[in-house]
Amino acid sequence: MSRVLRFGDAACREVPEAGGKGASLARMTELGLPVPPGFVIPSHALADALEDGGARLRALARGQDWRAAQDLVRTVELDPALRADVLAAYAELGAGDVPVAVRSSACAEDSEEASFAGQQETYLHVRGGDGVRARIRDCWASFFSERALFYRGQKGSLEDLGMAVVVQRMVEAEIAGVLFTCDPIRKRHDRMVVEAVLGLGEAVVSGHVTPDHYVLKRDGAVRKAQVHTQPYAIVAVPEGGVAERELSPEEGGAQKVGDDVLVRLAGIGNDLEERLGGPQDIEWAIQDGEIFVLQARPVTA
After folding, report:
1. Interacting residues of 254 by C-beta distance below 8 A, sequence separation 6+
2. Are the C-beta atoms of residues 174 and 287 closer than 8 Å to each other?
3. Are 164 and 282 in contact (CB under 8 A)?
4. What would the pLDDT profile of 112-164 be if each residue is shown by its tens digit?
5. What pTM, to 2 d.p., does this model score?
6. How far apart are CA 196 and CA 204, in angstroms?
7. What are phi and psi of 239, to 5 degrees?
8. Closest CA to 260 of 291, 287, 220
9. 97 with 128: CB under 8 angstroms?
């Protein structure tokens, strides 16, 4: 029995096992949505890898000693059986050193009471089994950053070691962005909001680039469009990782998505909101004309 959870596994749909991101991706996979394939290292794997079951790590977290906590996590090695299962699941995603995103997936993530999104790390275009294993450990360490411990102390529990890690095949995005199935600022449920950039969507999520901004009716018709000049795109580097590619004023200043794509995004948004039972914050990407859903979480204040 594998110690990792594929997106198609029933257990992967359980937040206590797969965390918020992992469970959401598994649910969308079950619904037949266009989700790139992947797997999850379950939330208990970190505590299982520690000789004392995590007792010392919990004590360091309670004391807000984030440096010592991260130093301890960085000494952790995957046990041989888990390592073998990670490498086998990674090999299923494609031939050779297929590029993947390695994402933290906290079990308390994105409840209605608190948004934990962005408190832990994501690593893009990771290549090779050794790279994937290293980034799993880095995701675990990010759960104990100064910022994450402070936030969890206010909104969650410092006893919590439940950090799953998602490994998902990368989309070589030509265009990417976010879709809100309601207007999160004006609280209008008769509108959707799309933000879009050239290249990987990290430029939107990080806030480093001002994206195109579109306000849509529920059928995808454009009510308002604001096109912004994008100075650079974040793109994948062949050997792994990402880099900034400078854009010409003509390329960066053009509208990033056409009306047909906005209608298709609105259709995906309506479908997801109905199936998941409420307004969604969706990360999407386009490769070779196909729209992929990378993440979805409830819209939080």
Report:
1. 227
2. yes
3. no
4. 444 445 557 889 999 999 999 999 999 999 999 999 898 888 876 888 888 89
5. 0.89
6. 7
7. -80, -5
8. 220
9. yes
